[in-house]
């Protein structure tokens, strides 16, 4: 670890720490017997999120709150699998306060009010394909992912399980409570966090902009404008209905969505890739709908601007500085910096 | 959060990041079918630890590796429940590189090779008693714990469950692998981490000193010198046998153990307190055994040096700067700084 980051100037951190936000309390009726403890009369705190934050010296006004995707934690935004700086430290260097979230029922926010079973389900090869490193066991020729075995090992060890059922409404409740604490801030979402991200912006006017990296589910549309679901080799992608008034709350903030490379143009049997063909298509309809309602959304398919080889993990790919530069330009264009 | 730490000078961080260390890989036999994925031919990476590290500018030679206790994560060492800086940032300010660990099957290292069920077991009142905040619902008169309800809420939300069975051998294997990466370093352990901490020092000569905060279990003795188990109102505390050669590996490094306040002197029916009476007694026998074999161990029961009111969480109590000063003096006395 001693060789990482040394080429950079030191970080000057004004303040850092962590906090639990949101959540609920379960209470078992009765009177607690201190010297014969049972569930009776005891409480349980759960369904909160956990956030670690760092505020650099002379920081910009708007913090960035980063929310991970499925099977991941705040780890997604830290050191890259090949040991370079991730978006946490890159955006600290660019002057933004950064909040890294473990969503409710994940990572350090593991206390769930609903029980679940955690099993060692072998998904490594599915992840390799679905996160577009390549088609197992082969990497895509242009993939922006280091080929050293230890890099793949680190990538696969960033996976961590749900400790309770995924609940986008609950996650966005806790996220909205976090934005109450941060004040006006920018939201970065990755993959499965796309959906909870939109819901957070509906629930909190402190969300001043959204940068969504490869949103994979939770595409919400007005009830009366729901597009057809989209079948793919990885299953059918269903849009989700919300009241028009909620949808229109997303039209007041700048939103940008990024997708990487190696998406098929036509339907294909290649499950890992076809999964993303429909997500990109649905995201295009979503951006159209936001803008039709007077919003300010854009979608950048990176190969269209000649940025090639990106996996599902844009923030930790070999060219993540180039991706960060794209994001910085967006934040600057929208006066969010 | 904006009011925390502002009274301090900024931190200058040379390098920060995170890494997964140790662990194993499960493999399901067969050939993976990319377009009809099942368990067949897939692998699962689990049982690694997760560590977040920060290296301050002009740092001291020996990093500090901090390992949390039961139901906790690295969160234990971060911001205190009442919002002050914890040992992570306090010891960074004192010039030590700091590594915060989520042990295998906990927090961000949630992938377990053994399945488990996670349930919302209500333990808040038991924790209040057992972590010696007081006797629920009353705080001890002298307790070094802020009485604001939101402080207790933060404290209880630092709890996060096991995502697999606790395994001291597996945890210490991963910890020894971490010390291989850090090089010579100091180990801080809390509560249940006491046992895995001793085992880590047996497995890695890079452990140059141990500061154990309220070790609660895993007291290891030479097979031929096993003391009697010690009954208490919270159950019987059993010492654990290891080969003499392993035990003697602990006699080459300085070790200090700290315990806080509100321990009963005589056996009592008060379960939360009596639990610690026997742990303190067993720790005294353990220190005697280490020193009898030529080691350098000491036990500090804080009330004996007139430091009063400490809970089980010495590192985040209201007087945690005073506790940190005690630790700094030990590290200085033992040339570990």
Automatic annotation (TrEMBL), chains A, B:
InterPro entries: AB_hydrolase_1, AB_hydrolase_fold, Carboxylesterase_BioH. Pfam families: Abhydrolase_6. Keywords: Hydrolase. One of its GO terms (molecular function) is hydrolase activity. It comes from the Bacteria. The keyword NADP does not apply. Residues 64-242 form the AB hydrolase-1 domain. The keyword Metal-binding does not apply. This is Alpha/beta fold hydrolase.
